[in-house]
Specification:
The protein is an all-alpha fold. The protein folds into 2 domains: 210 residues, Orthogonal Bundle (Hypothetical protein af1432), CATH 1.10.3210; 174 residues, Hypothetical protein af1432 (Orthogonal Bundle), CATH 1.10.3210.10. It is built from 23 helices and 2 strands. It has a two-stranded antiparallel ribbon with strand order 1-2. The protein is elongated and about 70 Å long. The protein starts with 8 loop residues before the first strand and ends in a 15-residue tail after the last helix. Bound molecules: fe (ii) ion (FE2) (3 copies). The site of one fe (ii) ion (FE2) has 4 residues, from loops.
């Protein structure tokens, strides 16, 4: 098989929006929080006459500011009161996640301080004036959205004058202690402005960003390694919703890279396979955990619900990554060679070898993965099940032979174990 070296191109602006959507999927009560914080901070930045570049940057920070939130309880705690009890954890985790992702690493410091009170942030040594301003504006926008969410809306879904006055009083009362004064003053002017509130709609916020002026930061072409860092960041957000899905994706990625190497693929292609493995189940962010983690047999409705994730993966990936076959490799992982798979029902003529490889590693990892309610299957049992699928014409025979020939190593990668019992029937024949 001949592989052309493909250009990877990532739309960073879309990445940021997809992170905001992914974070919504970690929580369920207060969706579009990231969108609104981005919008509120951006409007305030304009009011403060910040440069275009800085205003767009604070918008981006708003989208991802809660990327360190690690579960639903933590998220609800942050949204339920003006001064939540523990904010440190998600600030530090957010800082670590963004620092590890080179294309977004300049966002790490402002995110670290996005709950630090101005009286503590202002004298802090070693943080630039710009990062302090960015962090404090994200903080102010975040708390404004919190006050808005906890205010009573009128029968038409709008805030009353009284509610707006209460919000303004709350901000004024915390001026210079919690928030920076000039930012509060700019926000107070916005609170008076009807358009500020009426424009706070997710789809208006999305189109606002589409009309942002060109900035080099969002238009840089990033290479495969940096794209993998973006994919790893998504992986860690998935982890906050479902640790099993994250572990599964990571091991599918490692297995796919390993098998690709055994098959003699070029190094660049095996890295692409690793990349595809990491992101293949990204659509599971939209699948409810009670379905995702159900121990028993799925009902018809639950099975349909699960099947959606393959299409969801494709759409998310199409928004982020332009012009690359990786999207196909990743989103075809439930297609089967005899046309019996989902969601498109593709068949052998339409499934290339990398797509087949992700599919077989996906099955192998899922069978061998242990969960609290069931132990993973042994290598022998997993191979027996996959052999049957190959005999039924669903999975690729050639790739199966390679999997069997490297059975113990594949099992070790798949389970993260160091010692694996040798496979007794290890001839790879059908
Ligand atoms: Fe927040
Ligand atoms: Fe899947
Ligand atoms: Fe999977």
């Amino acid at each position: 098989m001949v592989f052309a070296k493909q250009e990877i191109s990532v739309d960073l602006r879309r990445v940021l929006f997809e992170i905001a959507y992914a974070l919504d999927a970690v929580g369920v009560d207060e969706i579009y929080h990231g969108h609104r914080v981005a919008y509120i901070a951006h409007r305030c930045a304009q009011q403060l006459n910040w440069s275009n570049e800085k205003a767009q940057f604070v918008f981006s920070l708003g989208l991802v500011h809660d990327c360190g939130v690690s579960d639903l309880n933590e998220r609800n705690g942050l949204l339920s009161q003006l001064v939540p009890s523990d904010t440190n954890h998600h600030c530090i985790r957010g800082y670590e996640l963004l620092s590890a992702c080179q294309p977004l690493s300049s966002m790490a410091t402002p995110i670290l301080y996005h709950h630090t009170w101005w009286q503590d942030l202002k004298p802090l040594a070693g943080v630039s004036e710009e990062d302090k301003q960015l962090a404090s504006l994200v903080f102010l926008a975040d708390r404004l959205d919190n006050l808005r969410a906890n205010a009573n809306l009128d029968c038409y879904g709008n805030l009353s004058h009284q509610c707006k006055r209460n919000i303004a009083e709350e901000l004024k009362a915390n001026c210079d202690v919690m928030f920076e004064t000039t930012q509060v003053n700019a926000m107070l002017e916005l609170i008076e402005c009807d358009d500020f509130w009426f424009s706070m709609e997710p789809r208006y916020i999305e189109s606002l960003a589409e009309h942002f002026s060109y900035l080099p930061f969002f238009s840089l072409r990033i290479g495969l390694d940096e794209s993998i860092e973006v994919a790893e960041l998504f992986g860690k957000i998935v982890d906050a919703k479902s640790a099993f899905t994250y572990q599964h994706s990571l091991h599918v990625a490692q297995l796919a890279e390993y098998l690709g190497t055994q098959l003699g693929y070029p190094a660049y292609t095996t890295r692409m396979l690793y990349f595809a493995g990491l992101i293949h189940d990204i659509g599971k962010l939209k699948t409810p955990n009670r379905v995702l983690h159900k121990p028993g047999t799925l009902t018809d409705e639950e099975y349909i619900c699960i099947k959606r994730h393959a299409t969801d993966s494709r759409h998310v990936l199409q928004r982020i990554f332009a012009n690359t076959e990786i999207i196909q490799w990743a989103s075809n992982h439930h297609e089967r060679l005899d046309g019996s798979g989902y969601p498109l029902g593709l068949d052998a003529d339409e499934l290339d070898e990398p797509s087949r490889l992700i599919a077989i590693t996906d099955v192998f990892q899922a069978l061998t993965q242990s969960r609290p309610y069931r132990a993973g299957l042994s290598l022998e049992k997993a191979i027996a099940i996959i052999r049957e699928l190959v005999e039924q014409g669903k999975l690729d025979a050639e790739l199966f032979r390679c999997l069997v020939a490297n059975g113990e190593e594949c099992y070790r990668i798949s389970t993260g174990q160091t010692h694996v019992e040798p496979l007794l029937v290890c001839n790879g024949s059908l």
